Structure formats: C-alpha cells, structure tokens
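Hey, I'm writing a tutorial for new members on how sequence and structure tokens pair up, and I'd like a real worked example in the thread rather than a made-up one. If someone can provide the structure for the chain below, I'll link this post from the tutorial.
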Amino acid sequence: MLKTTVAAATAGAVVFAPMAPLAQEVGRSRDPLSISIGQNDTFTRVEFGGVIGVRSRVSREGDKVVVRMGTTAAPDVSRLRVDPPAGVKSVETRMARAGGTDLILTLEEGADARSGVADGAVWLNLYAPGKAPEGGDAAAPQTTKAVVPVRAESSEQKTVLTFDWGAPVGAAVFRRGDAVWIVFDTAARMDMTGAKALGPAKDAHWAAGPGYTAMRIAAPEGLGVSAQGQGGTWTVTLGGVQSAVEGVEVDRSDDGAPVLVAQMAGATKAIWLTDPLVGDRFAAVTALAPGKGYAGGRRTVDLTLIPTAQGLAIETGADDLKIEAAGDLVTLSRPKGLTLSAPTAGLETGDQAADAPKRAAYPALIDETWATTGEAGFSDRYRRLQDAAGLETIAASDNPRAPIEARMALARFLVGSGLNYEAIGVLNALIAKAPNLQGEPEVRGLRGVARVGIGRLEEAQVDFSGAALTNDPATKVWLGYIASEMGDWEGARRNFAAGASVIDSFPKEWRARFGAAHAMAAIQLNDLPAAQQLLAYVFSQDAPAIDQLTARLVQARMFDLNGDKDRALAIYKAVARAPLDGIATPAKLGAISLELDKGAITPDQATAQLEQLKWRWRGDATEMAVVRKLSGIYLQQGRYREALDALRGAGKRMAGVPGAAEVQADQSNAFRALFLEGAADGLQPVQALALFYDFRELTPIGADGDEMVRRLSRRLIDVDLLDQAAELLKHQVDERLDGVAKAQVATNLATVYLMDRQPEKALQAIWGSRTTLLPAAMNSERRALEARALMDLGRFDHAQEVLDRDQSNPAREVRADIFWKQQKWADAAPVYEARLGERYKTTTTPLTPAEESWLIRAGVGYSLSGDRAALQRLNARYAPFVAGARSGAAMRVALDDSLSGVAGAGDFANLSSQADTFVGWVNSAKQAFRKEAEAKAAA
C-alpha cells in the first residue's frame, strides 16, 4: 500500500482503491508517470509518482489547484473526472504554454488542498468544505515566542546552539567565508543570556527585520556546521563530526524554461540579506523541519548556490534575480531567463555511426542529407538507426548521464523522411526519460518541425516559443509559416524576414512551401510586387508537383487582385482538375467565385456547386472559405435559415481553425441584420420567431440583444401572439436586465399580460421590478397598469388607492373603468367625457374606436344617473359625429336625452357591450408599441 508521511498519518488512515501492493510499487518504479488515488472520511489523497510524476509542481490559483507535469501526453485522469473527490467541482487538463501538461482541479467553495513530497512522490490532499485541518496539519495552531531563548553547550571541539521558538518556523543555516549564518522566517528577539560561551566560534550578532531574524557567527573556515529541527526547536552544531547533508535537489526546469528549480520540502520564504562586513547582497530560503540541506555547490553566470546545512542560500550579482518559494519548490529566474548550459552538456559522449544523420547548423533546420538512405535502401538504414537508438535507451534506464546521439540521429532521419508521427514518438520518449531535455534546442526544434508536418500548429508553436530557440533563425522561418497558415499575415511576414538568411538551407520542397506562404501573406497585405518576386522564387526551386500547384493557387489569387480575372480563372480551372482534393477544392472555390462575379453562372448554380464542395474537403480554412461564400449567397437571396445553418455547422466544430473567427462574425452580423436592422421584417411573425428561437445563442449580450428581443416581441403583439411575446420579455426581465431598463421592459411585460387577460402575472411583473429614481412618465404608466390589474381582479378600492391623485390620461381612463364596473354612473360619465377633451371641435375627423367607446359610456352614464342637462350638452357637441361613426346607431341611442332617467342598466346592456373600453385600450397599447419601435428606428 501507498506509504504516508507522519503529517498525513495524523489526519487518519488512508483507505485506497483496491490494488495489489506489488503491482502498485512496480508501476511506480517503471512508469514515467503514475497517479494513485485513495480516500478516507477526512480527505482524498492523490499521489504523482515515477520519474516525471515526482517532478510535478503544485500551485494554487484562486479556487483552482494546478498540478504541472513534465509530459505533453495527457495523463489518464478518467477516474478523477468520472468520480471527482469530495470538494472538487471539476477536473480538466490543458497543455502548458512552455511544454508539459497541467491538471486543473477546481475546488468547491470552502474546500481546501495541501501538498508535499514524500516517499518518492508528490502528494496532494483534497479536503471537502469544512474538513481541512487548521494550519499546516491537524494540530491546533501554535504561536511563536516574541523572545526566543538561545542556549549554548560548548566544548573545545564544538558548540551546540538551541533555539526554542515554541512553534514550527522555517530556517536556513550555511557558511559564507569565515562566518556561519542562521536565518529564521519569523521576526523575534534573541535572548542570548544562555549562549555566552561559543567554544571555537565567537562574536554572535543577530538582527530582526520585517518577517525574519538573522544571526551571524564568526567561525574558523575549517569548522563544520550542521542543523537539525524538530517541531519548534532548532539545533545548530558548530564543529564536531559533520553529518551528511541531503534533502535539497536543484536542476533546471522540466519544461525547458531557463530557470532553476529546487525541490525542498516545506520551503517557506526567500529572505534577502546584506553582509555587514563584505557589503554584498545574498538570499536565504528557509524551510520547515526536519533538517534538509544542499550538499553540492553550483555556479552559473547569474548566481552561485552555496552549500547549506539547512535550507538554500544564493549569491548573485544580478539585481533582477527572482526567487519564489511555493510549497515544496523554489524557483530561481530572471525576466529574460537565466544563462544556463544546454541540458546535454552533462551527458556522456556516445559512439555514433559515421553515416548517421548529423546535427544541422540550426536547431530547427532540416538538413537535406537526413533522408539519404544509401545503396542498402530505406529499410536497412531505418533498422540500423533504430537498433542503435534501442541500445542507447536501454543504457539510459540505468545511467542518467547516458548519451542521446543515437536517438537524436533516428529522430533526424524520421523528420527528414517525412515520418513525423514516428519522430514525435522518439522525441517524446526521450523527454519522458529526461524531462529537462525540453530545454535542449534541437529536441524542441525537431519536435516543432514534426508537429508542423502533421498539422498540429498550436503544439508546434509551443515548442518554437521555448527560450532555447529564441535566437534561432530557422525557428523564425517556421513561426512565419505557422502564422501564415493561421491567418496572421503580419506575423508571417515579420518572422519570414527574421529567418530569411537560412531559408535556402532547407530542402527544396520546404523552400517552395515557405515561399508560397510568404507570397500569400504579402498578397493579403496588398504587397503585390513582393508576392510576384516570391512566386518567381518558388517556381525556380524545381519542387514536387503538389508544392508547385499550391504556388499556382497563390498566383491565381494575385492575378484576381490585379484585375486579370480571365487569367486567374484559367489557373483555377486548371488546378481544379488535379486529383488532390486538398488543392482542387480551393481552386474550384476560386473558379465558382469568379464565374459568379462575371455572370457565367447563376446564384442557384453557384450554391448547388458550393453545397457539393462543402462536403468534398473538410476541417481547415478551405472549408471555412466555402461556407462563408455559400452563406453570403444565401443571405443575398433572402434564404436566411440556410445561411445561418451553414455558418453554424462550421463555426462551432472548428473553433480553432483559421477563418473560424470570421465565420462567427458572419453569424453574428447576419443575426443582427435580421433582428436589429429589419431584414427579418419581411418574414411572417411566426417564421421570424421560429428563426430566432433556432439561433437564439447568437443574441448579443448587452443593449443590442435586448433591443432585438423587444423588436420581435412587438411584432408578435401585433398578431396577438401574446404568450410568445410575454415569454421573450420575461426572459429579459428575469435574466438580463437591472434597474431602469428592467423596469421599462417589465412595464411592457405587464401590458402584454393584461392584453392576454392575466392580471396576476401583470402584478408580479410590476411588483418584481420596483426601483427608485424612475422617470415620472414611467411611474405614472406603471401605476395605471397596476390599478388596471387590480381592477380586473375585482379589487376596486385597492386600485383607487394606487391611482391616488394621478390625473394623467392613463390613470383617468382606468379610474373611469373602475367607476363603471362599480356602477357609479354619475362618477364614471364625467371622467369619460373629460377623456374626450375638446375633441368635439374637430368635426371633420371621425372619432377613433376608443373615442366612440368613451362617448357611448359617457352618454349611458349620464342617462343612468338622470343627468339630463349633461346628456343634452354631450348631444349638442357630438351629434355631428354620429353620421360617420362606426357605431352610429349605438351613439344615437346613447345621446338620446329622452331616455335619461327612464331606461335602466339592463336596457343599456347590449349598447354597453358595443362600447368595450378594453378593446380600445388594447388597440391603443399596440399603437404605443409601434410608435416606440418607429421612434427607435428613426433614431
């Protein structure tokens, strides 16, 4: 079973998934990366073992725990994904920018994680919310002493100093010249009363700074030093028999970056100090007990690592050296990287066959001689190189300094022969054995070249972006080619120019490919003279037919832009006959576009050919170009659904392909044109609604998206699709808006609910969107809607309270309807007449349906209340409108003063039904929606 550290054991016994103990240990020793998982009631433990696993780095980024592993092959984390540990929200992997793979565990709120190194593995403890131990382990928090007593026990041969801190603190102990330094990561005052006699040492001086305490002891250079720690007590021995120092390993970063990484369990912080006698500046990195030190010494151009009895010590003359202590790793770096020797500098020199492929002049250069097979042929050469590489691999399993020449020779041969998958396999296996070889320029260069060869451009970019290849001109050429393939035309030209001096050193087929890619970048940036010169260079290379045809496509594009359409069309048609779909498809696309522009084919013929072409070649920028052309024609024909279907089919599936961003933009622009700029106004409202719902993911975030929804809802209201309009508006209110904007749309939603005779929902919309500082007109409108909803529910008194003293036209109209429903005829009739205002003065214009309803109700109200004088006044004013009215008979009866005080409510029942003010209100609400839309369109 998996071993545990003392700290882990205190948290509980670990119960692991069923696994044979022997099989587990064997898997750890042989696999470059092994991941073991176990759990108990308190936490889940994940351990990363193997030569790669033990070098894993654990860091925390907010709620994410990131484990960086020095392998580009994604590890098997299926168990973690399918059954995440308690407290873990999600598990994913991603490729690290500088190489390697990141395992990302997103923690739930309140969850926690701890990590460390023990028993040849990196461990990670994951705690569910509320179950993490306080402090560094399960023990109760302890507080260090403000005054630390120091005791000294001296003899002629040695002195033992004891520092009693009372709680765990980090320490660093080392010698510089004729002095021993003892540095702690906590500030305190040293009580030296018990340390007067120092034996062979003398002159102990201490000083406290922000977050640290340092002591300098003058000691003869031959006097050894050792340190031991337990809990909150540190013991430093000067003289005597010096114990072996171990526990700190320093090597360059596994991802190949020009940094040094020290593995030191319990590292706490880096402390910069100044030697009071020498005056120079150095750093001490403290670590918690038990004791661990760095036995070796290491000197680079930028820094010197001092041997230590505890912790780490660094001397440097650089002002910008950065030291980061995180968990069990200490990283030493500079902004532009450390100056380090190549990872292969410490390897043994191997015996290499005389005819083995030799290193090229530049790390990312393909030598034309690599593919040479000799008289014996390909199989014989491949077998001999493979056998030599196999023997070297066997030797490397027991000897970390074993040479890599045979394996690199095999990789060169495979790259030169175009066997790129096989080359990647050889190089990945090499890196798996020695992760720091990612910093070897040729390893990164060859793998980047092979990845370009199989179309993995983003992975190749990661390899070529390594610091080891920064000054390699051949790498610039590859970066230019990648930029061109990804549509970064400016980046392509810039990088091609930076690597121009070595392009002629590549094989002829690659010279042709680079020239064609550079010419296309020049064309896209409208530098046609440069493109012409580059194409002439390509045609002079005697490259294979496929590369010549590719260049011809670029040439046709240049002729098209120059206005020589006939010549461009002739080239496109000639290349389209090639039996290679990857070349014939873009040529056919170019021919269709030119023939459509010239009128040689109709749009329907063009779309038929493009539909076939869309399935002929898939998965790259050519398909994107076909889809964009096809959708553009569909949009011009008003075939909106076909256009959006074509764009959506390509956009999501190939998000990382060059041209995908343009396809996404085309989708958004088409959707915007349909629902914001009026292109969909010619569709039936039901068709427009169906189209919107089918592609609603294209609705933009923000004001434009909100306006789209409101415009569509107004169209639905016009044709009485009130449920659908309410659904659109409700989504806006609940999910997208706040403040005044939410109140405005909620007002529209309440209106729709009232039009659909759903007063309860109307009240919910009004009450759920209340806010302060609304415009007075909006407040008045919302009061009227709330009162109308309460009226429809029969809560007349409450409705009157809401209206209060509001004398706006909407409020007066609702107030009149309330009086009418309460059969308060004497109160209702004057309000209806007041709504008409001085309308009687303009007899040349017929009354609107709403005005006829108000007039009829005013007349009936005066009749039922017996107000004959008011009815006669009303008749005198509005009698001229009766002849041309829609409800002339009803108006004639309502204005008849002979019925005043004689007829009852039952006699006027049929007449009142013809004067339904609700219908008039609905019509006026629809008209208000239309006016709002027209006003925004005009703006």
